[in-house]
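Q: I'm building a small set of examples for a reading group on sequence design. Run inverse folding on the following structure and report the sequence directly after it, with nothing in between.
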């Protein structure tokens, strides 16, 4: 269930088909004291080799979509790349940047996904979310904070649905821009091997890939995990990588870049840990750096 193809089995996996269904699962898991995790397309996730206890809720069947006049109301599990393509075909401009990002809409809101100068946050009007106390509430964009790969809902709520806005554009130009972005990605990214995209956030004014390469890590492997020879900020699974292999590479890179350049690289991928307590019951704890 992850693009890295790493991680043990989920004890139970559940694919809700409606927002109400998802809320009910959350409520019942809370009542039963069972840990519950949420994943979208698993394209920014490292799962533990031991697997996940409790219930893993996968949003990919939450895919109702309703187009308006240069707007769209879309559920969390819808494919972001597909939404971008469909917007382009309507002559709706804004999501050109997102055509090559392999996540769900909910994951993209939570990560404030971005590329080629565009971000999700620029197009969000409002978000309907399930909060930790079990309530479902719509929040306007002005009530939320977004930054580089950050949304203030993280750790507090699950995205159920979002309304996005576009500007009028020329269909041909939009689709052409998307094609160019896809070509660029195919040239610069190791798309033929399982990965989770960029592993580290770019530090201000620099690029994580440049620093990793300069520190001598490009192409290095631990177990089945390898720092891509094509793009040093990607770690690829060469066949049988374990989460521990990826974590060991990440740790080695972080230490070395810190020593050589005095820069502390922060993780962009989310790592779901197994320690379960009241806080992590709702949201996975993540390794930040
Ligand atoms: C080849 C490749 C290229 C990539 N390129 C880019 C890029 O250019 N730009 C970029 O920003 N990212 C990129 N990514 C990373 C990834 O695609 C994005 O971060 C994406 O938005 C994650 O969405 P997801 O559904 O896969 O989330 P997941 O990986 O399933 O989850 C990521 C985190 O979000 C949480 N989450 C998921 N859905 C929800 C929800 N509905 N509500 C609350 N929390 C939720 C999960 O619990 C987890 O903590 C790339 C990945 C790959 C594999």
């Amino acid at each position: 269930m992850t693009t890295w193809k790493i991680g043990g089995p989920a004890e139970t996996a559940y694919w809700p088909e409606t927002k109400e269904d998802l809320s009910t699962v959350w409520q019942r898991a809370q009542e039963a004291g069972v840990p519950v995790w949420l994943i979208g397309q698993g394209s920014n996730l490292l799962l533990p080799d031991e697997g996940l206890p409790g219930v893993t809720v996968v949003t990919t069947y939450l895919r109702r979509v309703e187009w308006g006049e240069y707007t769209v109301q879309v559920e969390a599990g819808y494919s972001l790349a597909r939404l971008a393509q469909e917007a382009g075909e309507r002559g709706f401009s804004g999501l050109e940047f997102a055509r090559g990002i392999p996540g769900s809409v909910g994951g993209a809101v939570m990560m404030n996904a971005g590329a080629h100068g565009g971000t999700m946050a620029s197009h969000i009007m409002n978000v309907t979310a399930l909060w930790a106390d079990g309530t479902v509430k719509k929040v306007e964009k002005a009530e939320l904070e977004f930054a580089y790969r950050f949304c203030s809902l993280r750790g507090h709520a699950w995205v159920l649905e979002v309304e996005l806005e576009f500007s009028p554009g020329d269909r041909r130009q939009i689709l052409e821009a998307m094609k160019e972005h896809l070509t660029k990605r195919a040239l610069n990214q190791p798309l033929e091997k399982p990965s989770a995209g960029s592993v580290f956030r770019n530090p201000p004014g620099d690029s994580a890939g440049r620093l990793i390469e300069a520190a001598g890590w490009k192409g290095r492997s631990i177990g089945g995990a390898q720092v891509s020879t094509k793009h040093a900020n990607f770690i690829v699974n060469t066949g049988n990588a374990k989460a521990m292999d990826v974590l060991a590479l990440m740790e080695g890179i972080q230490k070395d870049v810190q020593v050589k350049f005095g820069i502390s690289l922060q993780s962009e991928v989310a790592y779901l840990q197994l320690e379960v307590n009241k806080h992590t019951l709702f949201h996975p704890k993540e390794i930040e750096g």
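The chain has a mean pLDDT of 92.
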